[in-house]
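Hello,

I think I submitted the magnesium ion job twice by accident. Can you confirm which output corresponds to this input? Input:
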Amino acid sequence: MRIVLEHLTKKFPNRDKKIHEDVVAVDDFTFEIPDGKLVSLLGPSGCGKSTTLNMICGLEKPTGGKIYFGEDDVTDLPPENRGVGMVFQSYALYPHLTVRGNILFPLQNLKGKDKLSKEEMNRRADEAAKLVQITELMDRKPSEMSGGQQQRVAIARALVRMPKVLLLDEPLSNLDARLRLQTREEIRRIQKETKITTIFVTHDQEEAMSISDMMVVMQAGVLQQIGKPQEIYDDPCNLFVAKFLGTPPINVFEGRVENGWLVIGSDRILHIRGVEDREVYVGIRPEAFVPDEEHGPLVCDLKSVEVMGRDTSVVSTHAGIQGLCVRAIIPSDAIADPNGDGKVRFSLKPKKVHIFDKESEARIPFELA
Ligand SMILES: Nc1ncnc2c1ncn2[C@@H]1O[C@H](COP(=O)(O)OP(=O)(O)OP(=O)(O)O)[C@@H](O)[C@H]1O
Ligand SMILES: [Mg+2]
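Support: Only one job matched these inputs. Its output is below.
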């Protein structure tokens, strides 16, 4: 099911009585979610992810704009008629019901022509349970299961009505690191198997990057960028997106463009063209740094070298850096061996270096000279 949002907006009255302006939780979203894909809504807490999801499933009424499922305008359709399955941020199973009882619950409430026979309901429940691999747990109560198992029951409950759209609001937030990884792979597998159009909400960029066909990055109710995870990582549209994606995060420097050179402090790091002289922010990904003791143009004060197995993390400082330190990730065989002067010199992979306008923080494209 293809989903189209058209100028979708949600305003809430401000709870602070002294402020009369509304809170704009979702500001004029227009984008399309392709059929059969898994799309993440990604952004920090309070950016409007749950509000967007709640409008798509019909629990929240938009202040403005339209929602289409395929060709159909569903904006005013009640939730039960939209054919969506939803797993909430707190996945809330019914504690007094068994796993089977929980999964059957949405089917038992079907009325009229949708009503199912007992055998059919059980068959569907078994099918959903099999998909999330909890078949042997069907007679247990939620309190007798791990968080990950409960999470899977919640997903089975959302799947059992065979929804056209599956909405997941931070479905992994209550799990430990290992279970998170396992469950997110599970969700990906189920989504690929069922080909249900799925919207996955998370504030965890790594989770979004690893699971999605497409990501929607948002901040404070405003859409920032839409695209494939790798595309957004490689070509962030602004400083916020560049900083939000990637661990360790991108290193941000105060810099300037001067006579065709990109300069940080007194270091001329890249010879560029297409940008007039101006002050800029320079974002350098940790993997952009190549130790180059002879010719490396970026000269940093070495602080420490942390060996992390496959890679080595080189921590240094530089007068131009915003924040405490410069963090470079280099392959372990490339040892950062300073000349004994406490300095470490880097060349930079140009594709991993981005510059941003100091006012708007929009990315400024440049070419190498
Ligand atoms: N019922 C409401 N009344 C007033 N303001 C609300 C209401 N619901 C949400 N908001 C505000 O709207 C904004 C977006 O909230 P939303 O719950 O969509 O964020 P979120 O991205 O899901 O955050 P989180 O990651 O913390 O779950 C926030 O500023 C929030 O305080
Ligand atoms: Mg939320």
